[in-house]
Design a protein that fits this description.
Layout lengths: L1 H10 L15 E2 L5 E2 L2 H10 L4 H11 L3 E4 L10 H7 L9 H15 L1 E8 L5 E7 L4 E3 L8 E5 L5 E5 L3 E5 L18 H16 L18 H15 L25 H4 L1 H15 L15 H31 L8 E4 L7 H13 L5 H7 L10 E3 L6 E3 L41 H16 L2 H28 L7 H40 L5 H40 L4 H15 L2 H25 L4 E5 L8 H4 L5 E3 L4 E2 L5 E2 L9 H4 L5 E5 L2
Antiparallel strand pairs: 1-2, 3-10, 4-5, 4-9, 6-7, 7-8, 11-12, 13-14, 13-17, 15-16
Helix pairs in contact: 3-5, 6-9, 11-12, 13-15, 13-18, 14-15, 14-17, 14-18, 15-16, 15-18, 16-17, 16-18
Length: 685
């Protein structure tokens, strides 16, 4: 039986529709009468542009990888069930993608999908044959019912044992124990109206044997009517005489419209309304079909996420449940079938979840890093303790700590960065710090630097987006006024960025100040300095005034030079205005992506360490020491600086020969400051 049905698939031609008695809503046929059978719906799917939404959903589901895992989620390397899904039968057009796509189309339109499972001599599945739901005339409902009745479109009847059929069903809320009902049937009336308007529009360009006007000539003979028509044609026939005005004798002035236009019938807006209604019905955001006029990268990303969660996920849950309940048991194996990675990671949500989990001590640093999309680091398997927010290793418990054993004296460069930071509390004014104390101090200062990273990153992204909008208006203005790139465009951009430097400086000042205060509070707490922020703050504000505008200028210059390069290349290539606009957008996509993260980390670290230096000076400390984090990720030329001691107003020398007042010094080259993690220690004499 299975082979006979499969043979029909490979030889079938366009056949007549069978009558289906389920009472589901249908479509208009060629005679203008209602056809109430699912076969007509599937035919309609081929021709209606409004059902393209179903095709998109089906294509997206068909493209998702399907896995066979154990109950713990571990993937099986080899699975007969998955192999059969990948190659359902020996018909070359059927692949896993086409199988799942076709299943979703049937399920979405008609609320049902059927697979006939061909089994071998050992009783295991060997073939899968998806059949149209309108072929299935009856399904087994009672205990005595043993089979599905299947009638092909050429009239052949088969009885398929229920254990050889996989049945997907969208349960009808009104008749839950009868046949399924599809999403599409809920907007059948709207789709019929759209089809009728399309056909009417088509007929306006053909001779439908229906004249736009009938004129009555009272008492006129046939010859007189013929002369009237010939005279009318001579007056108004031909392209040059179109849209002419006819006049006749009348008792008073009157205007009579002889035919209605598409605008009069409002067909254009009506069809657009139905298009929007269809997308809304299937919950497909407009951005996913290319309507991005009023969208940005963030709204497009969120649109994709909404689509995946609200459209794909419910249907995938049904497919998974059916495959696990009906299909997988046919192979006599354990585990479950799952659709792999079909929801895009919500990066902003994951970032907040990682930060909250790490801050509350639920996640380790590495677990939080992975959740945020970063690689694990050596020594990252540590939790943050609620006591003083200090790192505690996974191995360390709350039992009484072992007594410290004497350790050989070694430099920080000679040891791997210690991850089992001890809960030390206040250190005070100690002259000789132990390695554990240095690790503890670095950890506290690093946490202080990270506290303002997220806020700084959001600020940078918002600033860059506003700058992109203003800069795009400036540059595009030259093109839209048909100017060949004038020599003063560069001057205009320079003036624009001079103001932007001031703007960015003003935006960053609160971030710098808050980060510096975090550095002050941390240093003041660790070393018990007893210094007021009111004393430290003026020292830091002087530093901001000295380097703030220059720092903002360096950030904006990177953006400006990238823009100039892209715009000049676009002009030299003779590109269109939209393409040059795209080049501008690409520069800012980078500025709002990785660069924003990098800038936020660099600026908050610089300000935090600068705040500690200002605190040391306010406390009367005369020397400070450079502390490098030796964990395998440090710069070589900063590793060599570890332990370097200079006067509080003197500068450190990096391995590259550059001079820095403190780690992250904004006056130093980028090679010594970008994403630096070093900190300062006070020297008590």
């Amino acid at each position: 039986m299975f082979e006979r049905i499969k043979t029909f698939f490979s030889t079938a031609k366009e056949a007549t529709q069978i009558v289906y008695s389920s009472g589901t809503r249908g479509v208009w046929g060629a005679t203008g009468q209602m056809i109430k059978n699912p076969g007509a719906w599937l035919k309609w799917f081929k021709i209606s542009p409004r059902l393209k939404a179903v095709d998109k959903i089906a294509n997206d589901i068909g493209a998702i990888d399907i896995l066979h895992t154990d109950n713990d989620g571990n993937k099986y390397d080899k699975s007969e069930a998955i192999e059969l899904l990948n190659i359902p039968n020996n018909l070359p057009e059927f692949t896993k993608f086409q199988l799942m796509r076709l299943t979703e189309i049937h399920y979405k339109i008609l609320g049902e999908a059927f697979w006939i499972i061909g089994k071998g001599a050992n009783g295991k599945p060997e073939s899968i044959l998806p059949i149209p739901p309108h072929w299935v005339e009856s399904i087994p409902r009672k205990e005595m019912d043993k089979s599905y009745k299947v009638r092909t479109s050429n009239g052949e009847i088969y009885f398929v044992p229920k254990e050889d059929m996989v049945y997907f069903k969208r349960v009808d809320a009104y008749e839950p124990f009868k046949r399924g009902v599809g999403d599409s049937q809920q907007i059948g009336d709207e789709l019929q109206i759209d089809e009728a308007m399309a056909k009417y529009q088509n007929l306006t360009f053909k001779n439908g044997a229906m004249p736009p006007v009938v004129i009555g000539l009272k008492g006129a003979s046939g010859e007189e009517r013929k002369r009237f028509k010939n005279a009318w044609r001579r007056e108004f026939s031909g392209i040059s005489k179109s849209h002419g005005v006819a006049t006749v004798d009348a008792d008073a002035i009157s205007v009579n419209i002889l035919k209605q236009t598409m605008r009069d019938l409002d067909y254009v807006n009506s069809r657009k309304f139905i298009q929007d209604l269809t997308l809304e019905h299937y919950m497909i955001p407009k951005e996913l079909i290319g309507k991005v006029e009023n969208s940005n990268r963030s709204t497009i990303t969120q649109a994709q996420l909404i689509y995946e969660k609200n459209v794909l996920k419910p249907d995938i849950m049904v497919l998974q449940d059916v495959l696990n309940r009906q299909y997988l048991p046919m192979f006599g194996v354990d585990g479950k079938i799952v659709f792999d990675n079909y929801i895009t990671s919500d990066s902003e949500f994951n970032k907040e979840k990682a930060k909250d989990g790490y801050d509350s001590g639920i996640l380790t640093r590495n677990e939080a890093r992975v959740l945020m999309g970063f690689d694990e680091v050596v020594g990252g398997d540590v939790y943050k303790s609620k006591l003083g927010e200090v790192l505690i290793s996974q191995e360390e418990n709350n039992t009484e700590p072992a007594k410290a054993e004497p350790q050989p004296k070694m430099s920080m460069k000679q040891i791997v960065f210690r991850t089992n930071a001890k809960i030390i509390g206040k250190i005070g004014k100690i002259k000789n710090l132990t390695n554990d104390q240095k690790v503890y101090i670095w950890t506290k200062l690093d946490n202080a630097a990270q506290a303002n990273e997220d806020g700084a990153e959001r600020l940078i992204k918002k600033f860059m987006q506003r700058q992109q909008n203003d800069l795009t208006d400036l540059v595009m203005g030259y093109f839209e006024e048909s100017k060949a790139i004038p020599s003063d465009l560069e001057n205009e951009m320079n003036e624009f960025f001079e103001q932007e430097n001031e703007n960015l400086n003003d935006e960053l000042k609160p971030i710098w100040l808050n980060s510096a205060k975090m550095g002050y509070e941390t240093a003041n707490e660790i070393f018990d300095l007893g210094i007021s922020w009111d004393i430290t703050r003026p020292e830091w504000e002087i530093m901001i005034e000295e380097f703030g505008l220059e720092e903002a200028t360096k950030i904006n210059n990177t953006t400006k030079e990238a823009l100039k390069k892209e715009i000049i290349e676009g002009i030299n290539e003779g590109e269109s205005i939209p393409r040059i606009r795209d080049r501008v957008s690409e520069v800012y996509a980078n500025a709002k992506g990785y660069r924003a993260t990098m800038i936020a980390r660099t600026e908050t670290h610089m300000a935090t360490v600068g705040g500690t230096k200002a605190t040391y000076k306010a406390a009367g400390i005369t020397k400070n020491e450079w502390l490098t984090t030796i964990d395998g990720r440090e710069r070589d030329w900063h590793g060599s600086m570890n332990g370097q001691i200079v006067g509080i107003d003197e500068k450190f020398e990096s391995g590259l020969g550059n001079m820095l007042s403190f780690p992250g010094d904004p006056t130093a080259p980028a090679s010594d400051v970008v994403q630096c993690r070093c900190v300062l220690l006070p020297i008590f004499e």
